[in-house]
Hints:
The complex is a heterodimer of chains A (112) and B (116). By secondary structure, chain A is mainly beta. Helices cover 0% and strands 58% of the residues of chain A. Chain A has no helices and eleven strands. Chain A has strands spanning 4-7, 10-14, 19-25, 30-38, 45-51, 56-59, 62-67, 72-77, 86-94, 101-102, 106-111. In chain A, the strands form two sheets. In chain A, strands 2, 4, 5, 9, 10 and 11 form a six-stranded mixed β-sheet that branches. In chain A, strands 1-3-8-7-6 form a five-stranded antiparallel β-sheet, with no helix packed on it. Chain A is globular and about 45 Å long. Chain B has strands at residues 4-7, 10-13, 19-25, 31-38, 42-49, 56-57, 64-68, 74-78, 87-94, 106-107, 111-115. Chain B is globular and about 35 Å long. At the A-B interface, strand 4, strand 5, strand 9 and strand 10 of A face strand 5 of B.
Amino acid sequence: GENVEQHPSTLSVQEGDSAVIKCTYSDSASNYFPWYKQELGKGPQLIIDIRSNVGEKKDQRIAVTLNKTAKHFSLHITETQPEDSAVYFCAARRGSARQLTFGSGTQLTVLP
Amino acid sequence: NAGVTQTPKFQVLKTGQSMTLQCAQDMNHNSMYWYRQDPGMGLRLIYYSASEGTTDKGEVPNGYNVSRLNKREFSLRLESAAPSQTSVYFCASSPRGGPSGANVLTFGAGSRLTVL
Lengths: 112, 116
């Protein structure tokens, strides 16, 4: 089955700096890669996703890049703000699969 | 619009006791899921229901049973709780469970279960 590794497990940045979280996946047939944000005491919520036919996708301060050859994808957050502090999960799914495989999560802390 | 509602939010059990976690969604989604979240292990799928009347095992199904009661409700049952089942449980739903499309998950707020 699919295996998704996520790094780092914790990340602290100063407010206004950029944050990058990286994930690698094992199944070359995976074609859908979402990122979920989990705020304290809440369930995860989708913030951005990318399909395998696209190399990069942006939505305001967040962006995701995908390198299919290397089988890795990354989340980039620019101009970080305190409200960006949360746990972030990457995930991957094969086209024929019915469910996502999640990474282990990254606790992002934005320091004022 | 409530989205996905889970009950209870907190529960403490003794080893061997049984309990059922309830989940309901009001978005007319076809597919529903149960995940567990443990430190350093992310979200692991326990069971899912691609559509009303069907259920399938996920990555970690041992010790659990599920029931898709109707299109709205999907319950998770622990028949004989063990300390290894101490975790935070999340229910989620999506418009469809098939391979096409983005299949965006909407999660509930979670249920924290402690087994002593």
